[in-house]
Design a protein that fits this description.
This protein starts with 7 loop residues before the first helix and ends in a 9-residue tail after the last helix. The chain has about 375 residues and is α+β, with helices and mostly antiparallel strands. The N terminus is likely disordered. About 50% of the residues lie in helices and about 15% in strands. β6 and β7 form a beta hairpin. The strands form four sheets. Strands 2-1-8 form a three-stranded antiparallel β-sheet. The chain is built from 13 helices and ten strands.
Length: about 375
């Protein structure tokens, strides 16, 4: 039971973790060196081009987005477009360095992990067709998305390696819980039984019928009359993830599940309360309230994992900053120059002003 993912989920992957292929080169090439190229990155393994079309394809998605399209219109539109290109290129440079370091570390793709990531994205769409339409709208193929996810998988494994010793102390975990106690107090834990006699695995939807609704109503009545809810979940529920746990789901907050289930779950008052059947795209659900408010001991593992992940991400970021500073980066002059201090592509005029203000500083690769 998950809230619907947005298309931007894999657009972020495409933007920040895109493969930066385009062929090996050297920093000594002349002439048409930059023709279709935005930058050349010489990292831990070799020199790799970042093609301009990778930036432009990602930029086109941003330009088409109604929430951001307006900044690319009017008198500032051209300047904003150039700033966006620089921002995209900056991230691609950093990720190319990370991928090269991964190759040095002998970290390669994990197909099972890629498949899991793809399935996770697909599960956020009500139908396979909706997923395909979303890809088409953004100008992506499923193969390209898999390539992005492959790089995401590799960099995640690098992050795990770099941050393998990251761990939260008991004091840090307890402090986090106390500072956020009100959020944990508002969480609920439910068990559910999902009834669907005709589930379309391709479309990921249930073709509900009056018989499904009646069966769900009968289950709700039996639960209220004392029948074991967990046993009925294992017998009747089509939710393969939760049924073996007696239908139990993890604690969740408002906004974590689909609205239909959220409304019902938060309307139950006492542990043991049973809901009337509620319909979603997956069938008819019968909910049982298990607990209100997540206690510290149950929240502790999740908090510890989250804090450890934060520390691992921080360690990875520091590691990547060092790796980028050691790399050589040449940027197409029309886009600017790469500044190793800010680790971003900036206008040449800004870099020249920085050098004039601090003549003793070493110039960034340009």
């Amino acid at each position: 039971m998950r809230s619907r993912l947005q298309l931007s989920l894999f657009l972020v992957v495409a933007l920040f973790l895109a493969a930066c292929g385009g062929g090996e080169t050297t920093l000594d090439e002349q002439g048409s060196y930059f023709a279709p190229t935005a930058a050349v990155v010489c990292g831990a393994v070799n020199c790799q081009k970042i093609a301009e079309n990778r930036i432009n394809s990602r930029l086109s998605s941003v330009v088409k987005d109604p929430s951001t399209a307006r900044v690319f219109k009017g008198p500032e539109g051209t300047a904003n477009r150039l700033d966006a290109q620089r921002e995209i290129l900056s991230e691609l440079i950093r990720q190319e360095v990370g991928l090269q370091m991964a190759r040095r570390m002998k970290i390669t793709t994990d197909q099972d992990d890629i498949d899991r990531r793809l399935e996770n994205i697909k599960s956020g769409f009500e139908t396979e067709k909706a997923f395909e339409e979303a890809l088409k709208t953004e100008g992506l193929t499923e193969g390209e998305l898999k390539g992005f996810l492959a790089n995401d998988s590799i960099l995640a494994r690098v992050r795990d390696t770099v941050g393998k010793n990251a761990k939260a102390t008991d004091a840090e975990v307890e402090q986090y819980f106390q500072l956020n106690k009100s959020q944990f107090d508002e969480q609920v834990k439910v068990a559910h039984i999902v009834v669907c006699g005709n589930f379309n695995t391709e479309e990921r939807t249930c073709a509900v019928s009056p018989a499904d609704q009646q069966r769900a109503a009968d289950i709700a009545d039996r639960a209220r009359n004392g029948d074991d809810f967990g046993a009925m979940a294992r017998e009747f529920s089509v939710d393969s993830v939760s049924k073996e746990a007696g239908g139990e789901l993890d604690f969740f907050s408002r906004g974590d599940v689909v609205p239909e289930l959220e409304e019902v779950a938060f309307s139950l008052f006492q542990p043991g309360d049973i809901s009337d059947p509620v319909q979603t795209a997956f069938g008819f659900h019968v909910l049982k309230l298990v607990a209100v408010g997540r206690p510290f001991e149950q929240a502790k593992p999740q908090i510890a994992d989250a804090l450890a992940t934060q520390k691992a991400n921080a360690a990875f970021e520091e590691w990547l900053i060092d790796a980028v500073q050691e790399a050589q980066v040449k940027v197409n002059p029309k886009l600017g120059v790469f500044d190793t201090i800010s680790q971003s592509v900036i206008p040449k005029t800004v870099k020249q002003a920085q050098n004039s203000a601090n003549p003793a500083s070493s110039p960034a690769a340009s």
